[in-house]
Every structure is written in C-alpha cells, then in structure tokens.
Amino acid sequence: MVTIRLRVNGKAREVSVRPNETLLDVLRERLGLTGTKKGCVLGDCGACTVLLDGKPVNSCLVLAVDAAHGEVLTVEGLAENGGLHPLQEAFIRYGAIQCGYCSPGMLLSLKALLDREPYPTREQVMSAISGNLCRCGGYHKIADAAQAASSAGERGGDDRS
Amino acid sequence: MSNTSVVGTSVPRIDSAGKATGETKYVTDISVPGMVHGKVFRSTEAHARIVRLDVSDAERLPGVVAVVTGADAPYSYGRMVEDEPFLAREVVRYIGEPVAAVAAVDEETAEAALDHIYVEYEPLPAVFDVEEALSPTAPLVHPQLESYRKGPIPTPVPGTNMCSSFRIRKGDVDAGFARSDFVFEHRFATPPIQHCYIEPCCAIAEYDCTGALTVWSGTQGAHLLQQLLSASLGIPLYKVRVIQPPYGGGFGGKVPMHVEPVAVALALKCRRPVRVVLNREEEFAASTTRHASVVTIKSGVNRDGRIIARKVDAVLDTGAYARIGPLVLRNGSIAASGPYDIPNVWIDGACVYTNKVPAGALRGFGTPQMTWAYESHTDMICRELGLDPVEFRLKNVLRDGGENANGEKVRHVAVDRCIEAAAKGIGWGEPKVTTSPGKARGRGIAATVKACAGPAESLVVLRFNRNGRVRALVSASEMGQGLHTVVAQIVAEELGIHVDDVRVTQPDTDFTPFDELTTASKATFHTGNATRAAARDLRHQIASIVAERLGVPQETLRFEGGRVIAEGLGESVAITDVLGKGKHRATNELVGRGMFASDYVIPLDRETGQSEAPVAFWMYAAQSAEVEVDLETGDVRVLRVVAAHDVGQAISRLGCEQQIQGGVVFALGQSLWEQTIVREGRVVNPTLLDYKVFTSADTPEIVPVIVEDAPHSLGPYGAKGLGEIVTTPTAAAVANAVFDATGVRITDLPLTPEKVRAALKAAGTKTTL
Hints:
The complex is a heterodimer. Chain A contains six helices and five strands. By secondary structure, chain A is of the alpha+beta class. Chain B is of the alpha+beta class. Classes of the chains: A alpha+beta, B alpha+beta. Chains A and B meet through α2, α3 and α5 of A and α1 and α15 of B.
C-alpha cells in the first residue's frame, strides 16, 4: 500500500492505495464518492470523467498514485455556495438527463469546456462531450443545457449554430 | 388535445436533481454490510461436454469465500422455456456461458481465483447459422427440448432447433399474387447488436437464516425476477424480495437474468451477501443481444399502386437459450407486413436455437428487424415502378376503420399524418442541394407500426399524507425513459397539486404493488392508467372529507392549485389541511389504489393469427432522413432526421422529445455501423470502442414531431407508448436515402463504408475523382 495526498473537491485527503489502483476506484471505494460512475474501465464511455488539475480525464485510466498532489473535482464538488452549478441547473431544466448514468461525466467535460471557453459554439460543445457516451438521449438536450449555462446563455444570447 | 393543466406540458424530470448532483445511488453504487464479490468463470467452447471441472485450487486461495459449479446450484430458469441452467451442467452451449463462479473478499481476488479453475471439454458439433440450424442434419442445441417446462407462448419442436414459430394467414395470398400486376421479392438481414446501457448489469443476493432471499438488482421487472427466482429455486414468492434501485439504462437488456443466478448460487453457498457486476467484455460476449434476422418479403402490387398481397418469412437467431425470444418473435412478426391495409397476408416467423450468446428484447421487440425489411422493400417497389415513395405509402397505409394483418378493424391511427409530417419536414420533393464533387445527397422515408402486446396488469398505490403530499408506490421501472415524471404528472393533474409534491418509490416487491416488468412501451399506458385510477380513488376520499366539512355535495368540488374548491359556495380547503383536522375519522393518511389490466386482448388464433383485439394497443410513426454519401469512401453522413410519432397524447412533452431524439441516435448507430461480430460463436469486438456507439460528434440535427391527432380511447388522457418505436424506422429511412443519393441498395445492416463502397463499385459508380 502507498499513502498519497491529494485534494478532492477542495478538501485535502490522505489515502492508502494499492499501487495498481485507479483514481476511479479510490474515489468510489475509498472516499465513498459514488457520483463518479464506472461504465467500462477501458476509457471508452467517459462515465468516470473527473477534472484532474482542471483537465477532464477518464479516472479509470489514471492510477491513483499518478494523481498524488493533484486537485480532483468530481460531480459532488460542482455545487457552489449551497446552490447547484449553472450546468446542473441547466441539465435539469433542459432535459439533459435521462437514466443519468452518463451525466456526472458529461457535466465535468462541460465544466472544463466552459472554464476555458465561456462562449462555446454548438460544435465546440458537441466536440467536448464526444468522449462521453449517452445511450438514452440524443446529445442535443445536453448541448442545449451547456449553451444555456454558458456565459452566452446567461447574457440571454443564443449561439446554437 | 385533452383539457389538462399538467398533462401535456413540459416539466423538469423529477428524478433529475439527484442524478445531476451524483446523489442518486445506482445499483452499482450500493454496498451491503458483509458483502463479498463474485466473478464468473465462463465457457470458452461454443458447444461441448464438460468432462472434468476442478475448482479445488481456487477454493483454497486466501480471500476466496466460496466457489460454485452447476452441481451446487442445480436450478434452471426461463420465462418462455425453462431451458437455462444457473451454471452449466454437463454441457456448455455458447462461448461465455457461466460454468463456475467465485466469491471473494474483493473483486481482484475473485478475478485472480478464476485462473485456478480447471476444466476439460469434449467438443460437440456446434451450429452458428440459423438456416443451417433448421436443416434436418443440424446438431441439436437442446436434444432434451421436450423435457423442459414451457409457458403458453413458445411452440418448440423437439428433435429440431426450432424454439418457437408464429404465423398469420389472412385472405388468400397466392390468389393475391396471381391477380397482381407486379410481384417483387427481396431478402434482408440484420446483425446481432448490443444494448450498451452505460451502467453494466449488477445484482447483490443475500439469504437470511430462514432461507428468505433478498436481491438488489437493476432489473426491468422486479416482480418478474421475484417470480423467476421463486419458481426456479422452489421457494415461495413471499420469501423472495427484489429491490430495484435506480439503474443506468435497460433497453430490454435488463429483463433477462445475467448476474442474479450466479449471485444467488454463491450467496446460497457462502451465506453472505454476494455482489456480481459484469465487466464490459462480458456485457458484449455473455449477456443478451438483439436477434439477428433474415427476412424475405414478397409483395403483389397493382398498376394503380395498391398492395394486394404480402408474404413474409422471418427467421430470428435466438442463440443458445430461449430467454424472451418467442415473445420477440411474436411481437415482431405480428406486424411484419407493416402499417398497411393489405387484404392478403401470410407471415411465417421462426425463432431458432444456435450455439451463440442468447438474444432477447432490444428496444423494439423484433419490430426494428421487420421494419428494416418491409420499409426497404416498400422503397424498392416504388423505385422499380417509378412511384413516389410518400404517395405510395399514403395510398396503402392503415387508416381508422382499415383492417390490419390480424383482421382487426383499427382505430386511433395517425400514421398517415406521421408520413406527411416526416415528408414535409425533410423537404420531400424539393430540389436536391448540390454538393461538393464526389459526394451525393438523398432523402428517404420509412413508416412503422409496433404492438404493445399485452395482456398486462399494473397496480399503483398512492399514499396521501397530512402535509397534502403524495408518495406513489409503483413497480414499473424508471430506467431513463421518464416514467416517474409521467406518474407524478398524472397524480398532480388529478389532485390539482404540484408535480414536486409527488414522490415516486423505487420498486421493492415487499412494498410496491404488482407490475410484472417494464418493456414493450407499456408503462405510460398501463401504469399511467393505474396511476390515474389510484389518484381518482384518492380524490374521491379527499372529496368526501371536504364535502362533509363544508356541508356540500362531493360532486361540486374541484381540485385546483393545491386547493379543494366548493363551486358556488366561495369556500375552499387547502389540500395541506385536509388531514389532521377532522374529528371523526382516521386523519393521518389516505391510501388510493388503482389497477389497470389490458384484459380486453383476445389471444390470436394459433393457426391464422387473427383476432378482433390482438394487442393492448398499437403505436405508429414515420421518420425521414437526409444523407450525404462520399462516393469515394462509401461513408454515409446523416445530415438530418425528422421523426414524427403518433403518441396519442403527450404526457410530458419534454419526455417525448427526449425519447424521440435519443431513440433516433440509438438507431442511427445501428443503421451505420453497430454490429456484434460473432465468428464461430466468439464475439470479436467486445468493447465500446470496437463496437462503436454513436457519439455527439456523429449526431445530426434531429427534429421531433409529436403527433396528437389520434388519442387512444383506452390510454390515460389518450396516451399511447413511445419508447421503442422511436428506433424502428430509422435504418430503412437512412438506407432509402442512400439509394436516393447513389442508386445503390444495401439490404443487410449496417450501412458500413466498406459495404456502400463495394456496392458503388459493383454498380459502376465512378468512385475516383
């Protein structure tokens, strides 16, 4: 076992992990953060997407030891100041959620997009979630939500082309 | 449009907040104290006798709690045919079949223990092709077929690989062909495909000291699972409890038992809770596929464009075990002649055993395979006769009062309006957009009909508390389709309260009332009706209390805006004040009960498939597609899909749009590239990457059109179902558009670039610039 330190959703954590343990398993099994979903463990579905130092990663492909000293954001850390994140609000309002198993990963991929590109085009949104598979929905409502939650959406602008 | 205030509007889904925050605990998120982890040792042979099976080394490993084989759990199950063992006994029948299983303190230890199980097989001749399986000399997948218990639907033929057959005989099809001016015959095929729900199958099984079994499972049918486990284990129903937590998608794939038998066998042996979850490779290689199909259709058509006779021969590959195959065959074949009014129809369907991973329901119950065939065929007839595909369909399509292949006079049909809307939306008849050289654009259309077969029964219990809020106890399954929101909307509609004042309980067979399973697009219709009945029962009880309090007749009370209003009196009672204030009654809780059964279904005549009321209800739709084909590479890009669906009455408009857009994306993958490739019984592309699920980057514009011109007289507020038919016409619409663009016809799905390019070459289309 190896002891690693990392920050998860803004809190410093110290965890003992096996050297071959993935960040996904550490989040789910050791830290009880089951909001991050396990869909394929091969990096294909994107359900386990979290932000590691601000960048979206498939946490099933990241060894926990490689995330040591990193800053991890999971879906549980998205809500701010007691209220939902604008992306979460928009996901609910625009019907972006069906079975919801892909939603945490989708939300984090989109959070990363909006952090670097506050005014994304439809194409940029669709590209940002192209590594997150959704089997219930048609992706468009997710994109609608992302655009509504973006700065463009907040200003009342409508950049859906 | 019905006169409603909540029904028919768009409301945010009541299950979405927990899913957006990560709070919702899915079945794979659940942990039970003392739980151990199970892994499955699977067959590497397609058909073989087990000569030796040695698990003693595995049993001795540190951390291993139990190892089971077929000898430890000599049980079999099957809702149609009881042909499937919990774990293989003596014989394996497909690659991936469970042979043994290990429970250990963690998944890693269980997985490692599988390497210490030794098995020796004596290979038996295997059969992988349905046509070969039907030949008299074929190896038999189930030589003991006659000895199995079976339900009323399947018609297995002992001594053959015929698992079930189905037939329709209406009019005189040969005379019809003889009278026709033209006769066309074509053959179509579809491959096995995978559900690819994002959450894998998972179950936890636990026995208590009295022998009672509790199973947590992401199942589409908590009560069905309870029945199957009770029947196969030989323990009474009340000793089996199934709890169904939220789960990540089903699409028909979470009807069969993929993990429960193994979890139960292990729990029985080690007397600890055992969790089994499939990995993605097992999902592909050892769960359930959609049936591969071979469908031949022959139609007689008159010079005036009327279809006089149609003969369909459909063969479905059900793999090594029947599972729900006979039902898929029946529900698909019943409408295999399409949404058309044809006087002479002959349908023969066969569901055939092979040594492959078993097949079952996959979002459409056989209808996608049939629609692919008859709507490609319909387009081929039009192109050969130079008829407009929209006009031809409108000339032949079923309308109110028309007669379907079962001899039923149909009502509440708006498929003609779906065809018109789909045609208009895609710009049918407008000049084609010129595109870059080396590419060609085209448009295609397809119409479809799907049965919700029934009969089925749904019960709902509503608990109304002192705060005026409602807890709905429902066993129908929310799997992403939006059922819980539909239930909440109906309760809110009937009681004049807000949707947020209704909570829906996850299925638990100890508490939530009977609803066998959620498939076949039945829940809005059946559970919706039961919910409405329960809400009206509750309304009656509330009204009697308020009437007594205000001294007015019950009939004068109106439920609106959270109040019970006495018309004329100018008085009202807040719904939150109904209970807890009275003097003479129990005033803490009211319980409303509702039931709906589609018991008006009259079973089909076995010989002719005729019935005046063959199904619970029918659904209709039409979709159109515009594509651009790269003439060099054969790559098909779908630019736009217009999907017009006859829903009767939308309960949640947002929910309908979700289902339509999601269903089209689901079906576009199956149109263009999805297929489970099976070579000599082995799945060779068992990952999401190799299989290639449709992504956001592949998704075109999708225009949902909700048609509400034909409300169903028995549906809640006129509603029909929607969840499956959204996937059924897409592939044919795309293939018809590819023909329109290029003049080449692909008759076997999917429309891969390799296939399209080869067809372009064969047709002499100039593929180099």
